[in-house]
Every structure is written in C-alpha cells, then in structure tokens.
From TrEMBL:
Gene3D superfamilies: 3.40.50.2300, Homeodomain-like (1.10.10.60). This is Helix-turn-helix domain-containing protein. The keyword Transcription regulation applies. SMART domains: HTH_ARAC. Keywords: DNA-binding, Transcription, Transcription regulation. It holds the Pfam family Peripla_BP_3. Residues 274-372 form the HTH araC/xylS-type domain.
Length: 374
C-alpha cells in the first residue's frame, strides 16, 4: 500500500475551523492524512516531530523559532498568518473584510472613521487598518481621522487616548474597526466608563474570534466580520498538494457580517444561517449531511440547527431534502434516467432511499410523478 503523506498543523493562535477544512480535504483525497496533535502548541515542536511530516500548515504569530525550524528543513509550508509569511500562503481577504465593515458603518450613519495606526505594530492590524482607511475614504465617503501610536505605548494608555479623542468628536457619529476582538472588548468598556454611547456615538466592529467568542460577552456585544477558516484550511491543503507550486498567496473572502448591538443590530440577520442556505444550494446534489454543513459553517451542529429553525422555520435536513426534491423533480420531468441514477445525481445513497423520501415529501412515488409528464 502506498504511504500516505502527512500534513502537520502548528498554531499558537488556535483555529478549529481550519482543522475542519484540512480534515475535509484529507478525507476526500486518499493520499493525504492529518496530524493535529501539536496544533495548539507550536512552541513545543522540535526537529524530530517535524521529521515525521511531509508538509506543514501553520497559523503562528509569536513562535517565530518554530517557523525558522520549518524553513531550515526545506519542508513544504503554508502560512495562514501575515506575521509569518512564507512562500506559500492562504490569508483572509482583508480588503473584502474592510468593505463589509465600511458598508455597515455607512448603513448606520457613521460620518467619521477613527483609524488607530500603531507604528511598528502587528502586521495584521496594519493591513486591515490600511484597507479600512482606503474603503472609508473612497467608497464610503467618510472622513478619516488617524491617531498614531508607537508600538511601545502600553495597550491601556492607547485605549485611554482613543476614548478621549472619541469624546472630542461628539456631534459626529464615529466608526471604529479592528482585527482584534480583545481590543474592541476593552475599548467598549472604556467608552462606556467615559459616558460615550454605543452605537449612538460610536459603532464598533471587529474580526471574529474563532473559539473564545469574546464579542458575545462584551458589555455591548460586538458586530463582527466572520472569517472563513474552513475554506482557509481546505485551500491550504490544496496548495500543498499542487505539484511544482513554489510561490503563491491565496486570499479567502469572509463569510459575512454578524450584526450585534455595537452597530445597533440585534442579530436579526444570522450570517451562519445564510451560509448554511448557500451551502445547501451549492452542495445538495452531493452526499452531504447536517454534520458537514455545520462544520463548513464553523459552528456546532445543535447550535446551527436551533438557529436555522429559528430563522427559516425548517430543519436543516428538511431544507436539504427540499432542495434535493427540486432537483429530482427536474430529472424526472425532463429525462429518462433510472431512479438509481437520479438518486446518485441528487445526493442520495440509493434509489430505494430516494423513493422513500420522495413519497414522504411529495405524496407519490417518483414513477407516478414521472408519468404525469409523459
């Protein structure tokens, strides 16, 4: 039996959605397998562990020594973090993230974009703020006000200065965007302490955390741009599997925006439900189930099922079956394929199973339905 190639995963900023995307790729391609034992602790990995792998996917912010070790071995490596850029990279599309943020700011009446620029700071923040300034001043038509800080200025001092400056802008509704939900969390706490109202005086948006979800626990829950970590993982594996690929960077668009109270939204629009509906439309013809849909939405199955039912009034499986019935009806009306062939085309395991679901949903057998159009 041919030996499977192993992709090792290393992170010091854990992204379970990335793991799910990598797992999906490996399950679809027999020549690859995944080793996630060291995924949360990149700083523990040594040369002996790396020697067991054929390739690495990393999301590393601070463990630079590990990145240097990977590169010294000449191992194929895809980086998911701009702070440790490699020859092969899969990054979140911060231009698209900025566009979503600015659209949200404009929709709630923000006139000014407050841009904190940290000299010599985190590259992730620098890239996003640069894109936000471009979007706000360009398409958004907003006034851009920059506040510059040296990287050595303590975090709490920066927050105090930003809060004081926001107070000086009273009379104008301000928009504030950041890649770090922790910064948004602390900023909101300080704003409220200074008597500045959210979202009446300032609207705040951040990129979502993938696991801790502090945006939901802030004193005023934070509107977030939700990143597509699943696709980042999947695309990273694709990049590693592509023979002869020496240098390439792929940008993955975000899933969408989740509105919360920091921009005046109460979460009426659920981006994860919207994502589930999109996936059902795209993938219902494949043998995909509720577990796979919830995984690609970056959320637990039970939570997604509850939210899906609340928004649509349907179950997830019911929505999948409804789409498959639409597909099956088309094949039955317009072709001569057997029930077995149609079952395969619409994502069912057998003609018997299709017939059973079809009769339950449509009140007649597939054969009886077909005869109506002959």
């Amino acid at each position: 039996m041919k030996r499977k190639r192993t992709i090792g995963v290393l992170m010091d900023w854990y992204r379970p959605g990335v793991i799910d995307g990598l797992k999906a790729y490996c399950s679809e391609h027999e020549g690859w397998q995944l080793d996630v034992r060291w995924a949360p602790r990149a700083d523990w990995v040594d040369r002996a562990i790396l020697g067991q792998w054929d390739a690495v996917v990393s999301h590393i912010l601070t463990s630079k020594g590990t990145v240097e070790l990977i590169e010294s071995l000449g191992m194929p490596h895809v980086s998911l973090n701009r702070s440790t850029k490699a020859a092969l990279n899969v990054f979140s599309d911060f231009s698209a993230c900025a566009e979503l943020m600015v659209q949200e700011f404009k929709s709630v009446g923000c006139e000014v974009f407050l841009a904190p620029v940290v000299e010599g700071g985190n590259i992730q923040a620098e890239v996003l703020v640069t894109e936000l300034v471009r979007e706000a001043a360009g398409l958004g038509g907003m006034e851009v006000v920059e506040r510059r800080f040296d990287a050595g200025v303590p975090f709490t001092e920066r927050l105090e200065q930003l809060v004081a400056f926001t107070g000086e802008l009273k009379g104008k509704r301000v928009g504030f965007g950041t890649p770090h939900t922790g910064i948004a969390y602390g900023f909101i706490y300080s704003l409220l302490g200074a008597g500045i109202r959210l979202p009446e005086d300032i609207a705040v948006i951040s990129l979502a955390k993938d696991i801790q979800r502090p945006e939901e626990m802030a004193r005023v829950p934070v509107t977030t741009v939700e990143l597509d970590h699943w696709s980042s993982g999947y695309r990273a594996a694709e990049l590693l599997a592509r023979a002869g690929c020496e240098r390439e960077t792929i940008y993955v668009r975000p899933i969408g925006i989740q509105r919360r109270e920091s921009t005046g939204g109460g979460g009426a629009h659920d981006h994860r439900v919207a994502r589930a509906l999109e996936l059902i439309e795209l993938l219902a013809h494949e043998p995909i189930g509720v577990e796979a849909i919830s995984s690609r939405c970056g959320i637990g199955r039970r939570t997604l099922e509850q939210r899906f039912h609340k928004v649509t009034g349907k179950t997830l499986m019911g929505a999948i079956n409804a789409k498959r019935m639409d597909l099956a009806e088309g094949y039955l009306r317009g072709g001569n394929d057997t029930i077995e062939v149609i079952a395969e085309k619409v994502g069912y395991s057998s003609g018997h199973y299709l017939s059973r679901v079809f009769k339950r949903e449509m009140g007649m057998t597939p054969g009886a339905y077909r005869r109506m159009f002959r």
